[in-house]
Amino acid sequence: MDKEKQFFYSSLFLSGNVIGLSFYIKTMDPINLENRLITYMEQFNELNLGIKIRRVGEGFQMVSDDEMYEELVKFFGDRSETLSKAMLETLAVIAYKQPITRMEIDEVRGVNSSSAVKALLDRNLIRVAGRKDVPGKPLMYVTTNYFLEYFGIVDLADLPTLREWQELKN
Amino acid sequence: MKDLLDIKLSNFEGPLDLLLHLIYKNELDLYDIPISLIADQFIESIKGIDEVDMEAAADFIQMASYLIYLKSKMLLPHQVALDEGVDPEEEKFLFTQRLIEYSFYKDVANYLKEKEFFSQRYIVRNSEIHLPIEGLKGDLYKLASSFYKLIDREKEKIVTIKKDTIDLEETVENLREFFKDEKEVFWDRLLNMCNSRREMVVYFLAVLELVKQKIVDIFQSDNFENFLVRYNG
Q1: Where is the chain membrane-spanning (chain A) (predicted)?
Q2: Chain A residue at shortest CA distance from B101
Q3: What is the ipTM of this complex?
Q4: In order of start, what are the domains of chain A with their CATH numbers?
């Protein structure tokens, strides 16, 4: 096993968090790096060690195998509440329209979204990204990197588009 | 008909959600909604409204009045409506677009729910290793949250009878001297020096004042975590 691969695995182990591609670009030969890392990831996952490497949030993360979930969750799981419908809807609107103000979210959903926004802020799924330059200077919200990690999404572009959805509906 | 309209408003996220439900139940075409029918059904649905939440009720009533307005405009002879400066077809189109958009986000929310479920099955390691400290560039929300969390701890009550006032200016001065010597200190250590909740509040205000005067800087590695107060040269 070469040094680069070892560094990749051990850094993911030590961190526990998502490590972005940018980190590896600094420490490794950047040419064709992403493909090499993906290969290392696949090789690692084939070993079926009970731990896996997943691609998430523009980076990689070492996690326990989802097949081990039932056994492990009693000891290591973080039984945080799943998100409410209101929170998911609000999050969906923000994800596509970011940066967006709370009132603009209300417009789309047809209801007041204040409590959902606050709850999402508390969960670090969204954050404030400045103010909109209009009267009242309302706060604008965007999704965080943790949002990608939480849902296991690699990149916002992976979310279904309105066009694709419309085609499915028809 | 009764079954269709036997609706609990709390099951819906709002008037748009209810509208989509009615459209679906009636097997209507989302792209060509019979406004008159939908308006009538919507109003029937909200008649039994016993929402305690006034704000939510208001949203439904507002939608009901809009639907009545739209219905009335569509009943007018086309030319009359145009004379009044309203193009009912265009309004209906815009309204439909709004519904479609909402329907899309509703489906995205379901998509996210699924993603959440599968993602949660991968357990993440609880890292003991600290992330590189980032400057807390004026995110007062995070600062305030961590403060509230910290003062929620139990504190042993000291039963002494003495004058219970603490001077803010004095505390700011004391802390400034303290930092000149100590250079940098974690917030929880400062808290431990406090004997009462009031003192904690004053210490916190004093730290904020020192930040404002650019005498110290604050660093926090994550939401709601302990933060570091560092003397500014």
Answers
A1: 7-25
A2: A108
A3: 0.90
A4: 3-74 (1.10.10.10), 85-169 (1.10.10.10)
Per-10-residue mean pLDDT for chain A, 170 residues long? 89 91 89 92 95 93 92 79 93 96 94 93 93 92 94 92 84
What is the Cα–Cα distance from A26 to A155, expressed in whole angstroms?
21
Residue B40 lies in a domain: yes
Q: How far apart are CA A111 and CA B62, in angstroms?
A: 11
Question: What whole-number distance in Å separates Cα of residue B77 and Cα of residue A106?
Answer: 34
* Region of B224 on the Ramachandran plot (φ > 0 left; ψ -120 to 50 alpha; else beta): left
Residues B138 and B59 in one domain: no
- Which of B17, B112, B122 faces A92 most closely, judged by CB atoms? B112
Q: Is B65 part of the contact surface with chain A (CB cutoff 8 Å)?
A: no
Q: The whole model's pTM is what?
A: 0.69
Both tokens of residue B125?
Answer: 């390691």
Record: contact A88-B124, CB cut-off 8 A: no
Domain span at B210: 134-231
Mutation choice for A interface testing from B55, B105, B143 by most A CBs within 10 A: B105
